[in-house]
Amino acid sequence: MPIPxxxxxxxxxxxxxGAPSVAWGQPADSTGQEEPPAVVQRIASAFADGDAxxxxxxxxxxxxxxxxxxxxxxxxxQALYVLREFFRRHTPRRFQVRDVMETGTNCFVQGExxxxxxxxxxxxxxxxxxxxxxxxxxxxxxxxxxxxx
Length: 149
Known about the structure:
Blueprint: H1 5-15, E1 21-24, H2 38-49, H3 52-55, E2 59-67, E3 70-75, H4 76-89, E4 92-103, E5 106-115, E6 121-129, E7 138-145
Parallel strand pairs: 1-4, 2-7
Antiparallel strand pairs: 2-3, 4-5, 5-6, 6-7
């Protein structure tokens, strides 16, 4: 079975100390789909790279962000600054997708965010919506929590 090119590139980057890695988990009820939808790839790579702009492109007019229990609604422009500050304080090492669920016009992504300076993994939950008649998924909500357990 040939190794997918993207996997080979990620392995090489990890071995030679390249950019932060993105890892894909396989949920227990997975259908065995070879790769996640493009929006999940965008979310995962945005978290792995600490790229708030990519994470919010596109975003709903109001974005709900919950950081360690504090929930606030922001305009997409305000959310950009909040997420940039989060990535500055919690520099990413890696992001691993744990579960993806798509239900009609909503998509939910759950993953683990590893920081460069801390061993603990943060739990990340993202909700995206697909406006009627559009193909792109818009970011609606991000929730970041401390490690479970």
